[in-house]
Amino acid sequence: MSLPLNTSSTPKAENAYRVMVVDDSAVIRGLLTRMLENDPKVSVIESVSNGEIAIKRIATLDVDVVVLDIEMPVMDGLTALPKLLEAKPGVQIIMASTLTRKNAEISFKAMRLGAADYIPKPTSSGELTKADDFKYELVEKVKALGRVARTARHAPLPSGASATVAKTGAAGQSPAQSPAGKAADPIRRTTGGLYANKEISLRTTAIARPDILAIGSSTGGPQALFDVLGNLGVVSQPVVITQHMPATFTALLAEHIGRISQMPSKEGEDGEAIRGGRIYLAPGGYHMVFEKKGTDTIIRLNQEPPENFCRPAVDPMLRSLSKIYGSHLLVLILTGMGSDGLRGSEVVTTAGGSVIAQDEHTSVVWGMPGAVATAGLCSAVLPIKEMAAHVRQLVLRSAA
């Protein structure tokens, strides 16, 4: 069934992002709607109880973002997903589910089928009502992906919203495959210049032989990580990753990376010495930092306060690595909303290390990579399909 539109007392910005909520629980739909409607740049225009109704309704509505539950009667979210994308090309879909391994597996599959992101729901309506972190994440993801949808079709943004972090093509697509139909200028991509309406200056200092590769990512990150690590082959350096994800998801992500990569992959463990040719992922709920102990680099996990609203966060990882590796640290900042990784990258470049950012055209959200790129911290700003080859070239050339 379809619920009446929410009537919110929050004054709405002109051209507020338009959202459909799909969940079989009327209570949950109401809670999600109220959370979203409290933001002036978000308007919930439809609320329905299953995927079948959503498909019928979306064809007649101007919708930017769908928040789609996974487990529903009549038609579940995974079945509805491709049909929604076919009925409304360009709509951005966030999968929502309780935090179980089964639902995490389904969420990964959904992202491979075209979902833009996922959000883990608290297990009960009582927990949901009190979950401030969930409210923040939900609203911010809806707004970030709303910008994506609007920018792709050149539609106006809500009053005061910026378009500089939104993409015009799907993550992992080459520029030629992008709905925008035009490739990014390769000269500007590699040498700086005007990019995303901002001037980018690239660092031209020589890159020392990397002794470790660190990667930070968020929204759209799993697919970007699969692309980079699936094409990187075996390298002699350790690879350490902070991806914004909850615990069940990070364990599963490490397994998926291990399947597509030629290197072993696992969640990092406190006190573990990292080794070359292996991949270590920060566990959900913990910052992963590093310390030197004799000749070993040791993982330290902590639950210090979130940074940039995230735990794990990229910044503490980069700060700790910079102290150990200095100019021999190579950092990749991949797709993600917000600016986590910016302050850490400043520390990295000050110590002589190098930073490469994913370009806007292939990022789901050009927040994190856009922040480091426009701050002038990068030695290169590259499409995701070029990253693995570029890293291998740096390692092999520097080692020669």
TrEMBL record:
Q: Where is the active site?
A: 218, 244, 340
Enumerate the spans annotated as Response regulatory domain. 18-136
Q: Which residue range or ranges hold the CheB-type methylesterase domain?
A: 206-398
Record note on modification = Phosphorylated by CheA. Phosphorylation of the N-terminal regulatory domain activates the methylesterase activity.
Annotated region Disordered: where? 155-188
**UniProt keyword list:** Chemotaxis, Cytoplasm, Hydrolase, Phosphoprotein
- Which Pfam families does the record cross-reference, listed alphabetically? CheB_methylest, Response_reg
What catalytic reaction does the record list? L-glutaminyl-[protein] + H2O = L-glutamyl-[protein] + NH4(+); [protein]-L-glutamate 5-O-methyl ester + H2O = L-glutamyl-[protein] + methanol + H(+)
Q: Which residues form a coiled coil?
A: none
- InterPro entries attached here? CheB-like (IPR008248), CheB_C (IPR035909), CheY-like_superfamily (IPR011006), Sig_transdc_resp-reg_Me-estase (IPR000673), Sig_transdc_resp-reg_receiver (IPR001789)
In short, the EC number is 3.1.1.61, 3.5.1.44
Query: What is its subcellular localisation?
Result: Cytoplasm
Q: Which Gene3D superfamilies match?
A: 3.40.50.2300, Methylesterase CheB, C-terminal domain (3.40.50.180)
Residue numbers of 4-aspartylphosphate PTMs: 69
Q: Where does the UniProt entry say this protein principally localizes?
A: cytoplasm
The reply to whether Phosphoprotein figures as a keyword in the UniProt entry is yes
Q: Which family does it belong to?
A: Belongs to the CheB family.
**Domain statement:** Contains a C-terminal catalytic domain, and an N-terminal region which modulates catalytic activity.
Instruction: Report the protein's function.
Output: Involved in chemotaxis. Part of a chemotaxis signal transduction system that modulates chemotaxis in response to various stimuli. Catalyzes the demethylation of specific methylglutamate residues introduced into the chemoreceptors (methyl-accepting chemotaxis proteins or MCP) by CheR. Also mediates the irreversible deamidation of specific glutamine residues to glutamic acid.
- The protein in question is named Protein-glutamate methylesterase/protein-glutamine glutaminase
Q: What is the lineage of its organism?
A: Bacteria, Pseudomonadati, Pseudomonadota, Alphaproteobacteria, Rhodospirillales
